[in-house]
């Protein structure tokens, strides 16, 4: 994000009025916003982080995956890129910077209190002194300073609802905007494919709220004031381009324009580049976090640490993961501390998958699952996501060291439509007694309505058919995926597509009875797993985007947070509150650390 000295490009700006153009998709989430409490004012404080610091001695670790830049550092330079220098002498992870109106300060977001926890800081343009402004466990971002330098306005998600806050830098007190969130949402009263983002303005005493400018089919974001306060400058791109801008897949280039309009009338639209002297900006890298890197902990009982995808822990404390970010999507096993790595199954090295398909993210060995005695692993090997449309996937079982690997299902490359019943099979889970494996299937005719090629299946390892194979029973015939047995074997948690664009977390008994839909938000709820104490953890888009969609990079689901709920769907709460895509949780008991 670039922020100009004369007119910072931000998600909100404060001066004669307040501008906000974030996109929380409040109406799409189906939230009863009026019934939720507005967060109380919060002064800047470091006390909220004391439990996080104490958490270094916690005896339970929650491993989780995060899709976010590995580093982000702020730089300042002349407008022609001359005299570039780092802003801070001790950078940690900083981004989304803006100048104060007098050009003496830079305000920015930093995660120096813990990986994933974004707070508001400021520093003089010479790099000192570094001062915290708002330090709480929620997301605080997109800060700007008032013309008189006394008030800082920013977005915070305290209470998991985005609000605009104004902080008095002299008294250290803050107030939340009295406007309801849906009135400040840029995409209110529409589904995702609605009218796009629009720029809204409100006077600083929260009167005179009105729309300044909108454009059908376009996203308008990060509005800010011109130097004389008469024009609004913002970026503009087509709604579909917001996907191209943040997607981690190689799709197509994303183009946008810098546009300004007259504030009073919303007319006199000019595509321009502001005339200014200095810029402050961030440089990011996508170096992946190392296995078991310490993250910020939002729960006083657990220490959060990074892991690659699909982590699972056996009863001896041995971990199995897919090295999608740190390797070539092979299944490896390792100690719970992240050491003693052993390759279990590398489909590229075995000549099953091409390196190019793995690098594109469409294939690999995914979702490993331990047998209860720790001697066996099962995992899906093949093509996933868009790759499954024409390619196969197999359920494989092997010894924990990768020996005695065998296919438990049949598939093909390529898959073809026409009723041949060749299926892509994947995402397996062992039953606690080791006699069953549940997995999902998908066939090329499924898109044409053949539900017999959809759903969950169970392979019975304690039975053998006349031709020497293990029998497979149908559990469901719908758009179901990512199944996982509970520790007592009485339930299977899974993700179901309940409509064309919505996924929910469900449970079902292994005999097909007692189907329960546990989530109901209009956002996607998916990737559910069981916790150590019989609750369910899952990824959710319930809380919306934490920043403007187009401002993310290499993140195909930038709204994901980790929730936990009881096995019957009650007592839902968030376990992460970061700006990034968080997922794939797994608990590791303290005796294995």
Shape: elongated
Return the CATH topology of the largest domain: Neuraminidase
**Poorly predicted sequence stretches spanning 5 or more consecutive residues:** 1-57, 177-205
Average of the residue pLDDT scores: 80
Regarding CATH, which class of the largest domain?
Mainly Beta
- The assigned CATH architecture of the largest domain is 6 Propeller
* Major beta sheet summary: 4 strands, antiparallel
Major sheet: arrangement of strands: 1-21-5-6
- State the share of residues found in helices, binned by percent: under 10%
Q: Tally the helices: what do you get?
A: 4
Structural class: mainly beta
Terminal CA distance reads: 40 Å
**Rg result:** 25 Å
Q: Per DSSP, what share of the residues sits in E-state strands of 2 or more residues?
A: 35-45%
Tell me the domain tally: 2
Number of strands: 43
Summarize it.
This protein starts with a strand and ends in a 5-residue tail after the last strand. With 593 residues, it is mainly β. It is elongated, with a radius of gyration of 25 Å.
What descriptors fit this protein?
single chain; 593 residues; mainly beta; Neuraminidase; 2 domains; four-stranded antiparallel beta sheet; 4 helices; elongated
């Amino acid at each position: 994000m670039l922020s100009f000295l004369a007119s910072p490009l931000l998600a909100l700006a404060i001066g004669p009025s307040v501008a906000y153009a974030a996109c929380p998709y409040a109406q799409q989430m189906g939230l009863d916003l009026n019934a939720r409490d507005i967060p109380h004012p919060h002064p800047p404080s470091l006390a909220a982080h004391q439990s996080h610091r104490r958490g270094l001695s916690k005896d339970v670790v929650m491993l989780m995956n995060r899709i976010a830049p590995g580093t982000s550092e702020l730089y300042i330079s002349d407008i022609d890129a001359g005299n570039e220098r780092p802003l801070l002498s001790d950078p940690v992870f900083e981004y989304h910077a803006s100048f104060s109106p007098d050009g003496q300060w830079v305000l920015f977001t930093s995660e120096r209190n813990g990986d994933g926890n974004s707070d508001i800081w400021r520093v003089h343009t010479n790099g000192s002194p570094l001062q915290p402004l708002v330090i709480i466990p929620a997301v605080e971002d997109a800060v700007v300073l008032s013309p008189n330098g006394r008030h800082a306005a920013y977005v915070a998600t305290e209470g998991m609802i985005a609000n605009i806050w104004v902080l008095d830098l002299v008294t250290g007190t803050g107030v939340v905007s009295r406007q309801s969130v849906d009135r400040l949402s840029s995409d209110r009263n529409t589904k995702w494919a609605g009218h796009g983002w629009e720029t809204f303005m409100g006077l600083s005493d929260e009167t005179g709220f009105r729309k300044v400018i909108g454009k059908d089919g376009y996203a308008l974001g990060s509005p800010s004031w011109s130097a004389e306060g008469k024009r609004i400058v913002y970026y503009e791109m087509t709604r579909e381009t917001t996907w191209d801008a943040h997607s981690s897949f190689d799709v197509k280039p994303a183009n946008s324009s810098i546009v300004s309009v007259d504030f009073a009338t919303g007319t006199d639209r000019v595509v321009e580049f502001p005339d200014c002297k200095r810029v402050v900006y961030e440089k990011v890298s996508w170096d992946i976090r190392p296995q078991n890197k310490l993250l910020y902990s939002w729960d006083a009982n657990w220490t959060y640490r990074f892991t690659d995808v699909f982590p699972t822990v056996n009863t001896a404390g041995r971990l199995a993961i897919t090295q999608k970010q740190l390797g070539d999507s092979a299944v490896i096993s390792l100690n719970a501390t992240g050491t003693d790595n052993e390759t279990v199954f590398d489909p590229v090295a075995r000549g099953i998958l091409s390196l190019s398909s793995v690098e594109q993210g469409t294939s690999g060995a995914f979702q490993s699952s331990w047998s209860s005695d720790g001697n066996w692993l099962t995992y899906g090997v093949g093509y996933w996501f868009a790759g499954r449309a024409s390619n196969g996937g197999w359920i494989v079982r092997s010894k924990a060291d990768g020996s005695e690997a065998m296919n438990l299902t049949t598939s093909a490359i390529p898959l073809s439509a026409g009723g041949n019943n060749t299926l892509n099979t994947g995402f397996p889970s062992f039953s606690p007694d080791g006699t069953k494996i549940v997995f999902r299937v998908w066939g090329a005719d499924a898109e044409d309505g053949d539900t017999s090629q959809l759903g969950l299946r169970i392979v019975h390892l304690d039975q053998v058919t006349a031709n020497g194979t293990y029998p497979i029973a149908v559990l469901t015939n719908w758009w179901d995926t990512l199944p996982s047995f509970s520790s007592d074997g009485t339930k299977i948690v899974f993700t179901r597509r309940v409509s064309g664009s919505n996924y929910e977390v469900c449970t079902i008994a292994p005999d097909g009875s007692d189907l329960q839909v546990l989530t109901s938000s209009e956002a996607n709820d998916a990737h559910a797993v069981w916790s150590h104490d019989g609750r369910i953890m899952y990824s959710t888009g319930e809380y919306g985007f934490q920043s403007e969609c187009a401002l993310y990079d290499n993140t195909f689901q930038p709204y994901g947070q980790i929730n936990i709920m009881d096995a019957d769907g009650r007592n839902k709460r968030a376990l992460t509150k970061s700006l990034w895509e968080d997922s794939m949780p797994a608990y590791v008991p303290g005796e294995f650390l």
